[in-house]
Amino acid sequence: MAPSADAAAPAPTPPLAPLIATQLKFLLTNSSLPIKVVQIWSGCSSGRYADRFTLGIPFCLDYVYWDFLYNAMHPKVAPDVIFGQGDEGFQPLVDYDESGNGGKSCLAHWDYRDPGGLLCLVEELRLLYIEYQKKLVEKVDDARLKFEISTVLAKEGIEVSMVSSTGRSDEVKFAVPLLDLDLKMMVPGCPWKLPQKIHLQAIFPVSSSYLSVPSAPGLKLTSTPDLKSLFSVDGVKLPAWVDGMCMAEYIPTLEEDLKLQVVDASASIGCRRRFIEALAPAFGRPLEADPIFCRKATVLSISGIFTFLVHFVIPLQFPKQQPILTLQSCQHCNSQGIPITSPPRNSYPWSPRWEVTEMVERIYDYLADECQNFKKLCSDGFPQAK
């Protein structure tokens, strides 16, 4: 007889022991890094409480995954930590003891009553892991990499890691923080909770043979996700990597270009805000609008007895790029009961040199005709793809 669905379902994970849960909550609330909880489980199959979890710790533009093992029977005791596969050489506590710095570790002064104990431990281990990876890279037998390391590792916040893959040569990845700017201060009322960063990722193949003209590294810009509301690194054209160049030469030019673009992106918020404000005389006061980054707005429009919404999505490159319009009927739904919407539209007359009042007037004139086509499609019962 086949087991029932209830019998096959895995048992739910019990809650973390209260003292342990407090430590984890404090970590997730107060860390300046986007640490994530991957898994929670119990060390005892019949335990009342879970007492261990896997954390994803940001490192070198990726994550390392470490298991933190508490004991629900003795929650006042500090956790053990199991590091990731391939990091058998990372033994921070042993190294601390050998260097005589064991007394500096937060584990030497562990106090279960301090909710920040786990946060201190994670921060301490991450810093030690950064140094561990730097030492691994410094041992690489590659003259070019040794030169790169000697010239850029002094830059504050830089991280490096060895990247080993089956079937191909090892690589060294650099994560270089760019722009010494407080990006949050550039946006009044900004809701960001975590610091926003832009990094240059540079990947160098490890080669023990001498090359008179080594190939350019793999280069890529990355940013924290929230920053895309202000500035997208995807559209940035990287400066060319000239033969014989090193990162110490490349980075200043890149930072200069980036700084100008970020300042322009900050200034463009004002342009988008003036456009949204200009909607009111023609369309009436917007029902909704993004007050911080000014990327979206919605107005209510009426043509005879036909009532519809117009959603504006304003690109970061405004006014070089025009807003994308989507019409949504207030009176017609598709077979799933979802209001019918038009495909996104940006084929209306536009010039970035117009004043915002003229931009809005041209959009208003375009919609006066376009809404009739949309009304007909809605009335004919043809649902429009969202």
TrEMBL record:
First-listed, main subcellular location of the protein, grouped into a coarse class: cytoplasm
Gene Ontology biological-process annotations: cell division; chromatin organization; double-strand break repair
Protein's recorded name: BRISC and BRCA1-A complex member 2
Keyword Nucleus recorded: yes
InterPro entries the record matches: BRE
Protein's cellular compartments: Cytoplasm; Nucleus
UniProt KW keywords: Apoptosis, Cell cycle, Cell division, Chromatin regulator, Cytoplasm, DNA damage, DNA repair, Mitosis, Nucleus, Repeat, Ubl conjugation pathway
Similarity comment text for this entry: Belongs to the BABAM2 family.
GO cellular component: BRCA1-A complex; BRISC complex; cytoplasm
